[in-house]
Write a structure and sequence with these properties.
single chain; mainly alpha; 3-stranded antiparallel beta sheet; 3 strands; disordered N terminus
Length: 178
């Protein structure tokens, strides 16, 4: 079952149904190809937003912050730290820029005055829409080419690669319907 002459040990999940269906074994070479495909796909996925952000002297950290503030309006700075997995210093640097540029506003918490709740301004929502539209167009085309079974498989693979805490955060975000 080796691909490309690889003698790597078999890795991955195995499954065998009652009827003796084939087992899924992936060689190291096949896994390497999957890793490389993800690297190149990520470059494609981020290319359009990167061009838009570069015009504003922003980077991917700004994009991630805008995306998640849009998904969960009123989210706290602490929640953003958890979702993004960045240092407080790094997030504060990004938020200061977005706030001073009029894309994000920080509101004092109603029940806890120490909390800061983040909201996109109208300009922030417009930028988020522009960035997301570019990525949705790319994903829509890829999903259309791949077909519904591949889309479901891709989603399962992505979810299986998430750490348990991140998977819970992802599911909570998805189920919130925001």
């Amino acid at each position: 079952m080796s691909e490309g002459g690889s003698r790597g040990r078999s890795m991955g999940r195995s499954s065998q149904g009652y009827g003796g269906e084939s087992l899924l074994f992936l060689t190291d070479e096949q896994l390497r190809q999957g890793i490389e495909a993800m690297f190149f796909a990520y470059r494609g996925f981020t290319a359009d937003p990167d061009r838009i952000l570069a015009q504003m002297s922003y980077g991917r950290a700004h994009h991630r912050a805008i995306h998640f503030i849009n998904r969960a309006p009123g989210t706290t700075v602490n929640n953003m730290l958890t979702i993004l997995g960045v240092t407080k210093q790094s997030l504060n640097r990004v938020l200061r820029t977005l706030i001073s540029d009029g894309l994000v506003e920080s509101r004092v918490g109603v029940t806890d005055k120490r909390e800061r709740h983040l909201h996109l301004t109208e300009a922030g929502r417009q930028l988020e829409a522009k960035l997301s539209d570019a990525q949705r167009a790319r994903m829509r085309a890829a999903y259309k080419d791949a077909g519904p079974e591949a889309v479901q498989g891709f989603k399962k693979v992505l979810e299986a690669m998430m750490d348990a805490d991140m998977r819970r955060a992802y599911i909570n975000l998805r189920e919130s319907g925001s």
